[in-house]
Amino acid sequence: MNRRFEDKIVVVTGAGSGIGRATARLFADEGARVIAFDLDEGVEKTAAGRGNITAMRGDAGVDGDVHAL
After folding, report:
1. What are the helix (H) ranges across the chain?
2. Is there a smaller number of Cβ atoms within 10 Å at the N or the C end of the chain?
3. Residue 24: helix, strand or coil by DSSP?
């Protein structure tokens, strides 16, 4: 697979399921270090078994969560 995102950091919000999960995994497969961000506990499943995805629970609509990110 193409490694065009090698040495890049990508933040994906809504990464707990669906399109967000698929997007996070695709970036990871293409070499990015990914921060998977979501309110949903499924974000841990998104990161499971993938060393270059870090799961973080939070709400992108809450300033404190975004600052923590």
Report:
1. 18-29, 42-47, 63-68
2. N
3. helix
